[in-house]
């Protein structure tokens, strides 16, 4: 989502907590919805944050405007990468920040008729004593891992603290563009990677794969 669209959503729909739901902060989204953006105060603060707040550098793309323009015109940029060990005739055409993630279903409590007691001992661990008939409340907990994905004229590389791969094009089964990233199928393994420049990734991948370098 672009910064401009984000600002429009916060200004016109923020009082209903729409931006909180987009950010997957459902609890705060419900609070905004039923309190009119914390009685208008939270909404106004969020507008000022969007208009005058500093951009989060962790989400900033590594791709320059010039590189993106070249890709959109059907040309491959040559990107200088100092921390990537390339062979003598290898050229990097794409490099950007990407995030992989893992979802885990956790029990946060119980609801319904029950005479028992539910105690949360620690994060992800709940102890239940006595009673019956209670219904477990489960939530999805997502953990994200930051990395960098590259496309050279020979291979696709993903470097991260969680999982990594380094594959030539013939080893990649399929590449699918998603709403906010890409899905790479490599043999029996599937990688969902969140990318700001996922459209450019697909274009570069196809150009290189089809010999456009």
Features:
single chain; 213 residues; alpha+beta; 3 domains; 6 helices; 29% helix; 36% strand
> Can you give the mean pLDDT?
83
Alpha carbon gyration radius: 22 Å
Number of helices: 6
Helical content class = 25-40%
**First and last CA, distance:** 30 Å
Hey, roughly how much beta strand do the residues contain? 35-45%
Unreliable spans are none
Strand count, sense and barrel status of the largest sheet are: 7 strands, antiparallel
Count of separate structural domains: 3
- So what's the oligomer here? single chain
In CATH terms, the superfamily of the largest domain is Pleckstrin-homology domain (PH domain)/Phosphotyrosine-binding domain (PTB)
Query: According to CATH, what is the class of the largest domain?
Result: Mainly Beta
Number of β-strand runs: 9
CATH topology-level name of the largest domain: PH-domain like
How would you describe what is shown here?
By secondary structure, the protein is α+β, with helices and mostly antiparallel strands. The chain has three domains: 3-53, no CATH class; 59-102 and 142-209, PH-domain like (Roll); 109-139, no CATH class. It is 29% helix and 36% strand. The chain is built from six helices and nine strands. It has helices at residues 3-13, 18-22, 26-39, 41-52, 65-72, 198-209, and strands at residues 92-111, 117-122, 125-129, 135-152, 155-160, 165-168, 174-177, 181-186, 189-195. It has a seven-stranded antiparallel beta sheet. β4 (135-152) and β5 form a beta hairpin. It is globular and about 60 Å long. The chain starts with a helix and ends with a helix. The relative contact order is 0.13.
């Amino acid at each position: 989502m672009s910064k401009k669209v984000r600002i429009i959503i916060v200004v016109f729909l923020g009082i209903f907590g729409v931006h909180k739901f987009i950010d997957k902060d459902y609890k705060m989204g419900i609070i905004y919805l039923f309190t009119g953006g914390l009685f208008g105060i939270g909404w106004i603060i969020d507008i000022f944050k969007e208009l005058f707040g500093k951009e989060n550098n962790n989400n900033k793309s590594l791709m320059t405007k010039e590189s993106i323009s070249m890709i959109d015109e059907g040309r491959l940029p040559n990107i200088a990468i100092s921390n990537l060990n390339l062979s003598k005739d290898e050229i990097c055409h794409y490099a950007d920040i990407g995030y992989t993630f893992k979802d885990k279903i956790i029990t946060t409590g119980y609801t319904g008729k029950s005479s028992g007691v539910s105690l949360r001992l620690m994060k992800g661990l709940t102890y239940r004593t006595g009673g019956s008939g209670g219904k477990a409340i489960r939530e999805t907990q997502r953990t994200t891992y930051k990395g960098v994905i590259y496309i050279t004229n020979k291979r696709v590389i993903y470097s991260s603290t969680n999982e990594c791969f380094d594959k030539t094009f013939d080893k990649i089964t399929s590449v699918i563009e998603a709403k906010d990233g890409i899905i790479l199928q490599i043999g029996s393994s599937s990688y969902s990677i969140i990318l700001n420049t996922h459209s450019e990734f697909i274009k570069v991948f196809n150009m290189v794969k089809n010999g456009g370098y």
